[in-house]
Amino acid sequence: MEKLEVKHLTHHFGFTEILRDINFTLHKGEILSIVGPSGGGKTTLLHLCSGLLDVQEGEVTNSFKSSSFAFQEGRLLPWKNVLDNIAIGLLARGEKKTAAIEKSKAIALKFGLEEEDFEKFPKDLSGGMKQRVSFARALVVKPSLLFLDEPFSALDIGLKKELQTHLIEISQKENISILFITHDMMEAIRLSDEILLLKADPGHIVKKFSFDLPQNERDDAFVYEQSVKILQDKDIIETFELNSLELK
Ligand SMILES: Nc1ncnc2c1ncn2[C@@H]1O[C@H](COP(=O)(O)OP(=O)(O)O)[C@@H](O)[C@H]1O
Ligand SMILES: [Mg+2]
Question: Does the domain spanning 1-66+145-248 belong to CATH 3.40.50.300?
Fold first, then answer.
């Protein structure tokens, strides 16, 4: 069975300890979220898990057959148009250009892009459209594991929900597992089977929340209800320093 296993992972930048003794397992078909405040070490953890950063201490074992990434800023190639940006991963794997473009078109439409956008370059796309392209590019290769680093953070609430719905649908259909990094608890509640709470300085996991209701049955009421419950949790209050926001 494919899985991603993290054991006793500790990381320093210079003399600063960024992550301390992180342990978790992401199983096939699961959506696991790491939630914590900005600067808490989330991106560092994701980079260690995905091999973008070398492990110093502890272990990361990844037995997923393939993986891909979607980032907060999209990171499209400015000299390639929408379809060519989406097709990159397929072409890198040696697929024929015509087949790669056909698959790219199909997934672009699924993510709400229109035919008239296909030839456009990133400079002519809105932030939301770039993010649609970024998701299409990450999913067109049908990765068994998808790494997401706050891909919804810059989007307005309507678009956020739309892209989350596409993501849930496609990942369920293709049995894609997801390691999802975010500072947004509500978005984690909508998407995750399990949430790990990462407290900062140094980043360490203080709590785990699990959700059994299938993602496609979670409506706004469910998300609000769970958020209200979780926002009263003392570890959440400490991790996000919510008590300092109280009116004196
Ligand atoms: N390459 C690096 N060199 C030195 N410090 C870094 C580097 N990358 C991140 N940091 C520091 O590590 C801490 C955690 O950063 P990061 O993992 O990006 O947090 P998050 O994604 O939760 O906002 C921050 O204090 C950041 O300044
Ligand atoms: Mg980050």
Answer: yes
